[in-house]
């Protein structure tokens, strides 16, 4: 997965959230490389813990991405 600077992701994701989408932060583990999705919607974190190896990644350094979900109304 391609990653971008944390603040860039937060800014763009906020536009989707303002439009009613649910946004989930994603990152690649800095230790094992596993793709991770943080369970809390519409919230961005500076650190993420890998559910595969248990190590923590500093997302301010490593970067991140996000998944956007729009619901049908």
> How far apart, in Å, are the first and last alpha carbons?
30 Å
Question: Strand tally, please?
Answer: 5
Shape annotation: globular
How many structural domains?
A: 1
Q: What are the segments in which pLDDT stays under 50 over at least 5 consecutive residues?
A: none
Helix/sheet category:
alpha+beta
Question: Numbering strands along the chain, what is their spatial order in the largest sheet?
Answer: 2-1-5
Main sheet attributes: strand count, strand direction, barrel closure: 3 strands, antiparallel
Could you spell the SSE succession in H and E letters? Answer: HEEEEHE
**Share in helix:** 10-25%
The assembly state of the depicted protein chains is single chain
Using only CA atoms, what is the Rg? 12 Å
Number of distinct helices: 2
Mean pLDDT: 97
The proportion of strand residues reads 25-35%
